[in-house]
Amino acid sequence: RGVFAFRLEDGSLVWKRHDFSRSPASPITIEVGGVRQLVWFTGEALIGLDPPSGDLLWSSPHATKWGLNICTPVWGADGLLFLGSAYDSGSEVLRVTRAEDAYRAERVWSSRTRLRMHHGNVLRIGDHLYGSSGDTNPAFLQCLEVRTGELAWQERGFAKATLVRAG
Fold first, then answer.
1. How many Å separate Cα 74 from the centre of its chain?
2. DSSP label at 27?
3. Chain Cα centroid distance, residue 48
4. For a tag on the chain, would you pick the N or C end, based on fewer CB atoms within 10 A?
5. CA-closest candidate to residue 144, choices 58, 56, 83
6. CA 93 → CA 12, 50, 98, 150, 159, distances in Å?
7. C-alpha span between 76 and 22 (Å, rounded)
8. Burial of 131 (0-12, 13-18, 19+ CB in 10 A)
């Protein structure tokens, strides 16, 4: 277990760090305070890493009943980072900031009932998050306000879905 970085040119190992539980979620890169970082949704937490060194910049716990965080996090240029999971966990938005050389991930809001992402993805369009929320039961297509987590609307007529933005 762990996080690895490889050279693009030849596939050789650059670094191997940490011992986080695995997760199917894809890592993303974000920029905070002019510094790029790698964000990964592990099985127990959301973490920010320094890409060149693998150093841990910040961590925010987000455990689920089964240790599975599947949905890839969604970053906004306003510093808000959405994460959502099924298995009795729910969703939350973190504000990631940098002051001097320290990073903070502060919870803006959380909900155990909204955008419980089992499979699929969440789209952020403007100030709204769209996703198919549900664990093993039928899912609702939901729209939440990113800054408050308030439910803008939901539609029962869809099964679990992966969303694509076109245009």
1. 5
2. P
3. 11
4. C
5. 83
6. 36, 21, 17, 12, 24
7. 25
8. buried
What gap in Å lies between CA 64 and CA 89, rounded to an integer?
Answer: 5
CA 24 to chain centre: 11
The whole-number pLDDT of residue 92 equals 97
What pTM was estimated for this model as a whole? Answer: 0.91
DSSP state for residue 112 in the 8-state scheme: S
Q: Which residues make Cβ contacts (< 8 Å) with residue 149, sequence separation at least 6?
A: 91, 92, 93, 108, 109, 110, 111, 114
Question: Chain centroid to CA 137: how far?
Answer: 22
The encoded tokens of residue 86 equal 């099924």
d(CA 17, CA 147): 33
Q: Phi-psi bin for 11: left (phi > 0), alpha (psi -120 to 50), beta?
A: left
pLDDT of residue 156: 87
Per residue of the chain (167 residues), what is the pLDDT tens digit? 788 999 999 999 999 999 888 888 899 999 998 999 999 999 899 999 999 999 999 999 998 888 888 899 999 999 999 999 988 889 999 999 998 889 999 999 999 989 988 878 999 999 999 999 887 777 889 999 999 999 999 998 777 888 999 98
